[in-house]
Amino acid sequence: MVMLIGYNKVRTAVFISGSGSNLKSLIKFSKTKNSPISINMIISNNSKAKGLNYGKTFKIKRKIFKFNKKRLVEEKLLFTLRKNQINMICLAGFMEILTKNFIKKFKGKILNIHPSLLPKYKGLNTHQRALNNNERYSGCTVHFVNQKLDSGKIIIQKKVKISKNETKVSLAKKILIQEHKLYPKAILKVFSLQRKNQFRS
Ligand code: GAR
Questions:
Q1: Is-contact 154 143, C-beta < 8 A?
Q2: Where are the chain's structural domains?
Q3: Which of 25, 126, 176, 197 has a CA between 20 and 30 Å from the CA of residue 50?
Q4: CA 83–ligand 1 middle distance (angstroms)
């Protein structure tokens, strides 16, 4: 993975579709001294996404891209990202599948958070599926995005115990709290590994 390292933080875009609570935790993290990234753009496929309000609060550029003609929209999106010198992408509840072409252009630089212990329960409706299978644990995963849905290299995971009377709503809440801690940890891990590799060469 080639990214800028040094005094400057890596310019990052966060892609969202909904409430943006992971976005908020990433913004807070990005403002700490320890953070190797800065959040410079918020991208959404949904103009009504609540999370877009964080752009206003924290004065971060927001852009909405309606994914009706995917290839065309992605070309425009790539142009915008390049124009804004974005070097890394964090997907945070972004409910759109990016094309192989797009992913190739940001190879090794797109991270995603998923609310299950991958490789279990890829895709949607993870919590209900975990409950239906009487799982004792679920959790969340941060992984690199590759061309197969929720299948890229796992960076870090957090296990969460499923209680007796768990519902998909209570489980989602419990896991979301862990997600907010896990995403920053994953970013630190990615960059510390990268530094070590650099020292080696
Ligand atoms: C999070 O639980 C995230 O893991 C999930 O959507 C939620 C977004 O919450 N992502 C996916 O399911 C992606 N397949 P947020 O908007 O409050 O961060």
A1: yes
A2: 10-195
A3: 126
A4: 27
Ligand 1 atom closest to 24 (CA): 18
10-195 placed in CATH 3.40.50.720: no
Do residues 74 and 99 touch, judged by C-beta distance below 8 A?
A: yes
Mutate to test the pocket of ligand 1, among 16, 21, 145 (most ligand atoms within 8 A of CB): 21
Q: Catalytic site residues?
A: 114
pLDDT at 193: 78
Q: Are 54 and 27 in contact (CB under 8 A)?
A: yes
Ligand 1 centre to CA of 115 (Å) is 7
List the residue whose alpha carbon is closest to atom 6 of ligand 1.
93
Residue 154 and residue 118 in contact, taking contact as beta carbons nearer than 8 Å = yes
Edge-to-edge strand list for the sheet holding 37-44:
61-64, 37-44, 10-16, 88-91, 110-114, 137-144, 154-161
Contact predicate 11/40, CB 8 Å: yes
The CA distance from 171 to 27, in Å, is 24
Tokens 């609540």 label which residue?
Answer: 50
- pLDDT tens digit string along 83-130? 999 999 999 999 999 999 999 999 999 999 999 999 999 999 999 999
The total of other beta-carbon atoms located within 10 Å of residue 56's CB is 10
Say how many Å lie between the CA of residue 93 and the centre of ligand 1: 3
